């Protein structure tokens, strides 16, 4: 007998639209986006600069309000999901507080919510262990490499143990090898925690390596050109990047990107 899941998708968007007023007119940042994401997926958003990837994340995070369409996070309005701490957000720049050490940075969200000191310390240490930085809790951001700083910001985003993690080009500024290592670490963390990740990237290989599905967007006004399922075996490894299937999927995404540019 087939089991039918009654759980709502963790993200459900229908005909989502975002139009920004600009002097002398308007910018259509996102047009008619429809997408459903199940719990535990790893979704990458890829598309040309200005196609609305960050806007889509900001809509999901309730940082801007859509001008049309529907959007639900775990069956809730984004404002409710935000209050219920349903997601963590990792930005392109780590945005750490220079005057706070690593532990204090990770504890900050819990401190703002008045969690007791012992609870927030224990939770922050657990998250630092998850990202492999338990030995650096007393270090200050300026004492860490760019990759380590981004791991701290991932630990901070996970402090509330949210089911969803939004990541906006988190590794874009890092060198290729650091980026590949962090990709592997992120996949380990994703497997161990069962989180749903929505990840913005400009890199086709990064999207293929990380994702269960890749959402390909068109040039402005940003629309979804296609959704590519990545059927590469898990866990992914360095060998994954050399497989024939990896190149086939990368080519499929490249063709969709070209179509969206035309
Ligand atoms: N607050 C705003 N007011 C006016 N226009 C905006 C605003 N936010 C975004 N836009 C415009 O919406 C479009 C989409 O921007 P967005 O940052 O979502 O693109 P993106 O795909 O993330 O780009 P990139 O890959 O370069 O980061 C752009 O043309 C941008 O200028």
From TrEMBL:
Protein name, UniProt field: Sulfonate ABC transporter ATP-binding lipoprotein
ABC transporter domain ranges (all copies): 11-244
Keyword Nucleotide-binding: yes
SMART domains in alphabetical order: AAA
Transport is among the record's keywords: yes
Keywords: ATP-binding, Lipoprotein, Nucleotide-binding, Transport
Single annotated GO MF: ATP binding
Species of provenance: Deinococcus ruber
Top-level taxon: Bacteria
SUPFAM superfamilies per UniProt: P-loop containing nucleoside triphosphate hydrolases (SSF52540)
